[in-house]
């Protein structure tokens, strides 16, 4: 058990933006929401999963929709209370703690804001260890957990609660309502007891985000290594490419940010080309026609000077980035995990091959 204040939020937002694999929303916006709540209501208590009673009701809080839209219509004052009231009334008992559903610049921050506003603790656990675009794409689905009852509320005060036959149906129906509400909403889903969370959740995600964020901020202070070497060592990352962004093709479709970023090689990659495709999160990295990484491994773009992560909605012509691959949570590499988030689910015509095998076993 420890407290999360403003300084911790800064590092968590930065580290979670890296783990968001290009998605999860703008860390600047998420950070402002969380800091504002903590400054007004006080620090949030962070619990390890082991500190949560087995029968306690834990509820993930998130935003659903295209992350770029959140920059135009922010979260209001009353959404979290509405979500709390809806879920606790349905279950007939109070919510014990909130938790993030994924790592990302926004969805790691909103649960902190909700916990601060309602005076609840936050659990150091999520359902991805990264970010994914669809709400059935969580480790809780692998464990047989249900996304519903799912509560949904927009900034205008409209709210609904879903009961569906599968988590994929939850995604389809909630996505339609999200679009009707302007493209982004606040949600609570996968309400679960502590015992289930401990078995199928990704433990330590908030702490890992904070550790990564702190290390990225100090990456140029490392003795005996270049900043790039220090970054790759800290993150256990695989360098896939370095390049200047030559073009970005993107569109918002069906509540998702779809696109492709084209890269022209620099430094040791001069004369080569690469591209990264994304659906909210980066899905594939292809260098000189060869796929070097696919979902569910993490594909992250970072600034070549600061090593700060660059989300898909911040990609712009001329920016110099390094493409980095990170290994995913082991449960995603099982067949059940690949059925949910493997490359073929996203229409990529290749089988999943672990990042370290595609990179021939060695980090650059």
From TrEMBL:
Taxonomic lineage of the native organism: Bacteria, Bacillati, Bacillota, Clostridia, Eubacteriales
Domain S-Me-THD-like C-terminal: residue ranges: 166-355
Domain of life: Bacteria
Pfam name, any one: S-Me-THD_N
Record protein name field: DUF917 domain-containing protein
InterPro entries per UniProt: S-Me-THD-like_C (IPR048350), S-Me-THD_C_sf (IPR024071), S-Me-THD_N (IPR010318), S-Me-THD_N_sf (IPR027479)
Organism: Intestinimonas massiliensis (ex Afouda et al. 2020)
Domain called S-Me-THD N-terminal: residue spans: 8-163
């Amino acid at each position: 058990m420890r407290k999360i204040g403003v300084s911790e939020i800064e590092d968590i937002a930065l580290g979670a933006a890296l783990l968001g694999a290009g998605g999860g929303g703008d860390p600047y916006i998420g950070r402002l929401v969380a800091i504002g709540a903590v400054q007004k209501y006080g620090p949030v208590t962070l619990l390890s999963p082991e500190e949560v009673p087995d029968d306690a009701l834990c509820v993930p809080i998130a935003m659903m929709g295209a992350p770029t839209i959140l920059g135009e219509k922010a979260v209001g004052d009353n959404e979290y209370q509405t979500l709390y009231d809806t879920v606790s009334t349905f279950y007939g008992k109070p919510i014990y703690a909130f938790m993030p559903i994924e790592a990302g610049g926004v969805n790691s921050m909103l649960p902190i804001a909700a916990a601060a506003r309602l005076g609840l603790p936050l659990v150091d656990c999520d359902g991805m260890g990264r970010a994914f675009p669809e709400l059935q794409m969580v480790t809780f689905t692998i464990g047989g957990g249900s996304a519903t009852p799912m509560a949904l509320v927009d900034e205008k005060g409209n709210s609904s609660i879903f009961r569906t036959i599968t988590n994929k149906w939850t995604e389809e129906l909630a996505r339609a309502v999200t679009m009707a509400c302007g493209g982004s909403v606040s949600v609570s889903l996968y309400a679960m007891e502590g015992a289930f969370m401990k078995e199928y959740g990704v433990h330590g995600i908030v702490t890992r985000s904070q550790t990564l964020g702190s290390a990225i901020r100090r990456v140029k202070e490392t003795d005996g290594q270049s900043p790039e070497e220090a970054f790759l060592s800290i993150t256990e990352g695989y360098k896939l490419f370095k390049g200047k962004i030559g073009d970005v093709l993107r569109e918002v479709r069906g509540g998702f940010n779809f696109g492709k970023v084209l890269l022209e090689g620099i430094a040791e990659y001069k004369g080569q080309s690469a591209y990264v495709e994304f659906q909210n999160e980066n899905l594939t990295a292809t260098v000189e026609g060869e796929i070097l990484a696919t979902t569910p491994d993490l594909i992250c773009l970072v600034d070549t000077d600061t090593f700060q992560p660059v989300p898909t909605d911040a990609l712009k012509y001329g920016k110099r980035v390094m493409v980095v691959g990170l290994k995913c949570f082991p449960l995603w590499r099982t067949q059940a995990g690949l059925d949910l988030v493997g490359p073929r689910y996203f229409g990529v015509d290749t089988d999943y091959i672990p990042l370290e095998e595609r990179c021939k076993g060695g980090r650059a």
